[in-house]
């Protein structure tokens, strides 16, 4: 039997709430509308959610306040859907813990695609937690101890290098763009600072190569990004 995917829709406009709920139902998920910040907090405390769609301008408690509370207590993905267009607002919510920001009026197909994308990513991170040991070639990662071994010997990595390696392991065939890597590892919006990623990726590769000079673990797909080398 399939496990039901539950999505909390925090939106005070009834028409928009109904539209979002219909998008969610059409994708095969179960929506739960909440029409105020206070009501949303009741639902958040009552059960676990797979995803939260969150408006910012709400009665009772603002979306920013709800986002801050969610970020303290949960890793559930949060998609902001708001009429606020200011770049500063977008950056602040993303830094607070939002996973995405969609402006109103929105495209129905885009919302559906982004919901699917974040649910896939959340499932992958959950799978990593359930599988404490990750392996590729002669690399093994103990995700509980945050220890990496190559060719039987432990390789000391910085926190950033470790996070990059685990990200690549999370989807071995996926090509991760520099924006993917930066936003996942640094948890900030990517503004094209290639140098930061290049330095960390180079250091990671050098440490892996030193541990086993006869093997290549990470490949660069020119013009696209990085992935594990099969």
UniProtKB/TrEMBL annotation:
Residues 6-119 form the Response regulatory domain. Pfam families: Response_reg, Trans_reg_C. SMART domains: REC, Trans_reg_C. Residues 131-230 bind DNA. This is XRE family transcriptional regulator. GO terms for cellular component: cytosol; protein-DNA complex. Residues 131-230 form the OmpR/PhoB-type domain. Keywords: DNA-binding, Phosphoprotein, Transcription, Transcription regulation, Two-component regulatory system. GO terms for biological process: regulation of DNA-templated transcription. InterPro entries: CheY-like_superfamily, OmpR/PhoB-type_DNA-bd, Sig_transdc_resp-reg_receiver, WalR-like, WH-like_DNA-bd_sf. It is found in: Cytoplasm.
């Amino acid at each position: 039997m399939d496990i039901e995917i539950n999505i909390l829709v925090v939106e005070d406009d009834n028409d928009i709430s109904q539209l979002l709920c219909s998008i969610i139902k059409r994708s095969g998920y179960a929506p739960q509308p909440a029409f105020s910040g206070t009501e949303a907090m009741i639902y958040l405390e009552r059960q676990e959610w797979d995803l939260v769609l969150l408006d910012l301008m709400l009665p009772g408690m603002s979306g920013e306040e709800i986002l801050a509370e969610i970020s303290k207590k949960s890793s559930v993905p949060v998609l902001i859907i708001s009429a606020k267009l200011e770049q500063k607002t977008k950056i602040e919510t993303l830094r607070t813990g939002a996973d995405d920001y969609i402006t109103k009026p929105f495209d129905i197909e885009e919302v559906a695609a982004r919901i699917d994308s974040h649910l896939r990513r959340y499932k992958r991170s959950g799978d990593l937690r359930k599988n404490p040991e990750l392996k590729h070639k002669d690399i093994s990662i103990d995700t509980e101890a945050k220890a990496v071994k190559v060719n039987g010997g432990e390789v000391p990595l910085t926190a950033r290098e470790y996070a990059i390696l685990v990200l690549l392991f999370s989807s071995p065939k996926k090509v991760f763009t520099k924006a993917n890597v930066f936003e996942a590892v640094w948890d900030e919006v990517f503004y094209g600072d290639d140098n930061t990623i290049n330095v960390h990726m180079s250091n990671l590769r050098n440490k892996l190569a030193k541990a086993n000079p006869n093997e290549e673990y990470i490949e660069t797909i020119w013009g696209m990004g990085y992935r594990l080398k099969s």
